[in-house]
Design brief:
single chain; mainly beta; N-terminal domain of TfIIb; three-stranded antiparallel sheet; YjdM_N; YjdM
Length: 113
Amino acid sequence: MSSLPKCPACGSEYTYEDGANYVCPECAHEWPQAGVEDAGEAQKVFKDANGNVLQDGDSVTVIKDLKVKGSSLVVKVGTKVKNIRLVEGDHDIDCKIDGIGAMKLKSEFVKKL
């Protein structure tokens, strides 16, 4: 006897696992395994260089001189950045820096104020 659940659509007992889902071969119904749907809803936690959790609207300080790509400008150590916005991707902070303009920063190069 199989320990897999029966199909909720047609009641078939011939279900099988496919990745994170169960699949019914008789009616082609797919449904997530228990607990899998909760894991997909977890949001990414953004942390600064010291491990503090960052949120939208925080103020941060740059901890390393950062060269601006395609320009001769440099964002100096200690530059304060206000009202950050967190986004998905490699550079996970969107912000505006006085004297430079709109920038994307990595959270590993900033610390929370």
